[in-house]
Amino acid sequence: MYHKTSTYWARGIMTALFLYLVTPIVVTLIYSFSTSWVKTILPSGFTLKWYSQLITNADFTSSLLRSLGLGLLTTVIAQICFLPVVFYANVYDARVKSHLRFVTVLPFTIPGIILVTGLIQLYADLPIPKLLILVLAISLLSLPLTYQALDNAFIGQDFRAMFEQALVLGDSPLKAFIKVILPNIRAGILIAMLLTFTSAFGEYVLTNILLGGNFETLKIYMYRLMQSNGQASSVLTTIYFIFLALVSLILIVIMRHYAKHDQSSQKGTHN
Amino acid sequence: MTTRLKVFFPLSLLVVLVLLLPISVMIVASFQGGDAGFSLDNYRQVFTNHYYSEAIRNSLGIALITSVFSLLIAIVGAWSLTHLSPSTKNMFISLFNMSASFAGVPLAFSLIILFGNAGIWQALTTALHLPRFFEIYSLSGTTLAYTFFEVPLGILFLFPVFEELNPEWREISAVLGASPFFFFKKVILPIIFPNIIEVLILLFANAMGTYETTFALTGNSIVTIPTLIGTLIDGGLTANIPLACTFATLFALVMTALVWLGNRVTRSKREVAA
């Protein structure tokens, strides 16, 4: 009997949590389709005009492109910085990992607002493009996500043996890495890239304070709209949420796809 | 040796350029007085100025209440999550991940639609002739806003720990004649307690460092340490970057100490257990 009542409670609690987290999002979604919804319990009517208005706006397109560019650059830099190190730590020297642990708590000890203070103090008057500093700084702050996703990719296989066999067979280290290691950690790399991209795409604090109004990304545009045009802002918020949902969906698909792969090779150990 | 260098070069360069150098310069600048000599004047101001102490009080208050409250919900939530079927479990984990990424401007905007001056909550309370007992732009409103990302974050941190608890342990201890309370106190609590403390510290630190949600929700009307730093950096006439550096230095110092302490708690317990 114990198990039944606790399952019952668990379902109730999760339903309550679901409603609590989803309500603001659903309300924003309905708001974005409403003709007007001010000081009334229900909107006065439904329309698509706010969507067509926002999407045809040049500011929207350019801010979207800036955020996409920022996301892509950051993703590439984060991979360049971390892929070799995580590979080395997992294959040759596990002690490196304990040194890397500082990275995982970085967003808590040095959050964006603290880091940006140091960046402004150091780079405000130096003739280095602020955009370059911004991309590097976002890469640094996204490292915990990159690190954990990549580190998970190395669980479960003997990469050292694989790598050294390739070396013995005459491949250069780089070639061996590309031919033997990369195909086996594809899923982890994809997940790491998606997570990094998402965090950079939605970055606000660093971009806003470091570049001010000179570089309007999607989030900064969203904030500007929020001050002036509630309907347009609700559309943008909805689009942003759909983007997050899509990323989650892709993540689930990747994990399912590769989990199936794993199961077929080691049947019986799962379930 | 050269391959080792090649492997670590990009990461080291990144860490030096946008972490070590800026943070060192920030710490040095925090000791700069008006005449660019060494001075503790900024530190004195932080602790004596009333406006600044209000920021510190607000930050500590909001962070303490949200982190404790969110932790309690997260414990119940993580426990419930372990009771669901694997596919529902995954759906919820995705939801929590999304909610955590939704923090900031989008969250603030959603809450304004819901609870703001022209919002639905307002219409509802007016229609039902209820008193207006809740204001989203206030301290309590900000505290509520933080829970929307602190709770999912807490669940995501705690869930793996709860998953590791083996349901068979309960049966074993029951067979051996232990009461459920004894089982909870002697078996479950020693395992999860250090993790709970660590998660509490992380949630607290996360709330302390929150800038985007507070700024988007309240502008500069609610002053916290992060929004104060923001104003000190680009506040036009009132800009005072060395003072911003002082706040940031103190913040980094205190949070690093706290997080390090939290890490110690879990690790020493683990070593005892092993």
TrEMBL record, chain A:
Which keywords are on file for this protein? Cell inner membrane, Cell membrane, Membrane, Transmembrane, Transmembrane helix, Transport
Its chief place of residence is membrane
Q: Which residues form the ABC transmembrane type-1 domain?
A: 64-255
Look up the domain of life of the source.
Bacteria
The name this protein goes by in its record: ABC transporter permease
Give the UniProt family note.
Answer: Belongs to the binding-protein-dependent transport system permease family.
Q: Which Gene3D superfamilies match?
A: MetI-like
Q: How does it sit in the membrane?
A: Multi-pass membrane protein
* Entry's transmembrane regions: 12-33, 68-90, 102-124, 130-150, 187-211, 231-254
Write out the annotated subcellular location.
Cell inner membrane; Cell membrane
From TrEMBL, chain B:
Report the coiled-coil segments.
none
In Swiss-Prot or TrEMBL terms, this protein is called: ABC transporter permease
UniProt cross-references to PROSITE patterns, sorted A to Z:
ABC_TM1
Q: What is its main location?
A: membrane
Question: Family, per the entry?
Answer: Belongs to the binding-protein-dependent transport system permease family. CysTW subfamily.
For whether the record's keyword set contains Cytoplasm, the answer is no
The subcellular localization recorded is: Cell membrane
**Any idea which UniProt keywords this protein has?**
Cell membrane, Membrane, Transmembrane, Transmembrane helix, Transport
The answer to keyword Cell membrane applying to this record is: yes
The root-end lineage is: Bacteria, Bacillati, Bacillota, Bacilli, Lactobacillales
Q: How does it sit in the membrane?
A: Multi-pass membrane protein
Domain of life, per UniProt, equals: Bacteria
Domain named ABC transmembrane type-1 is located at 56-262
Q: Which spans are transmembrane here?
A: 7-31, 60-81, 102-124, 144-162, 183-205, 241-261
Q: Check the record and name the SUPFAM superfamilies matching this protein.
A: MetI-like (SSF161098)
